[in-house]
Prior knowledge:
- This is Branched-chain amino acid ABC transporter permease.
- InterPro entries: ABC_transp_permease, LivM-like.
- This protein is mainly alpha-helical.
- Helices cover 66% and strands 3% of the residues.
- It is built from 15 helices and six strands.
- The chain has helices spanning 18-27, 35-60, 68-83, 97-121, 125-144, 146-149, 182-206, 208-218, 220-225, 230-256, 266-279, 284-304, 321-339, 347-361, 366-371; strands spanning 155-156, 161-162, 165-166, 174-175, 178-179, 258-259.
- It has a two-stranded antiparallel ribbon with strand order 1-6.
- The chain is globular and about 75 Å long.
- Mean pLDDT is 84; it is low at 1-10.
Amino acid sequence: MSERRTSPRLIGPGRWWLVPVGFAVMLLPPFYLDAFWLQTGLFAMSAAIGAIGLNLLTGSTGQLSMGHAFFLAVGAYGYVYLASSPEDGMTGLGLPTPLAFLGAIVLAGVAGGAFSPIAGRLRGVYLGIASLALIFIGQHVLFNAESVTGGFNGRNVPPLEIFGFSFDDSPGVVVLNVPFGALERLWFLAVALLVPAAWIARGILRGRPGRAMNTIRDHEVAAAVMGVPVARYRAGVFVLSSMYAGAAGALLALAFRRTVPDYFGMFLALDYLAMIVIGGLGSVAGAVAGAVFVSVLPQLLTRFGDDLPMVAAPGSGGVSPAEAARILYGAAVVAVVLFLPRGLAGVWPMLRSAASRRRASRHLTPLEKEEQPA
């Protein structure tokens, strides 16, 4: 009789209380943190949503994508165009903002679907180079389609409004004696997007689609022999990853309040690759951890750079906070590849395993300890 195997649980049955406690902790910062930390957290949560999508594509399916920033731009500018009304030489559809937000996600998915035939034919570095072309195409469109994107100066982002509640700095919203402005309101929106995004991705990876994706990544020929529709999976994951990027881009636009073409360039694409490598390929928790590390580090260096050696203000001749951040997480990528193959997501299991071995060794006899491998 074959032994029934069950997938390991992320949280044991005796620790179910960690879920509501963790969710409650995520809702507390707007009541205690100032604007800098709230904005930093918004950037981190939007980056986490985009990194989860990229990890599904690159970490779990093995499709190297260098064009993730393009799909973030589609989400950000798609929301602005759909939600804005035509004025001052700018075009827009003037749709209700919730519909515009959903439309931006769909537009990013359509863009990913348009590129998916290419993604289905190419793999490895060839797919990376092909997707890299999306960055240059996107930059050309963003700078030259001025009636849609605003050109070099960008466009203002209409605030999201749901059932009359606006995610802006309009007065009158006070919760527990704390005035809620745009950042406080957007924090709850970001949590409401990040939690289901992570839950859906985790469900995909733990189910049959996730096993098929991992098989395609590890051995594409074997996956095809076992009956996995490789081309359909590769195209479908590319569309799903693009939709995650579209949601992240729309949320990022709401946090910035203005879209700027320069932001959605090559450096952003490299940042997202660094997120999933540092956090851990093929892991939802790793994508979130890597996104927090890569997005928060430049903000911290900017805020506290005056107190750190070798970090100077931009244009002063020293190493700027942005450059220092890229140097640090570049070193982090090298360290992860050499010493942490599973990324930051593998640190806790590694520590837990080491602690278990240490506890077990206490009950061994001296002879059994000598027989243990070094």
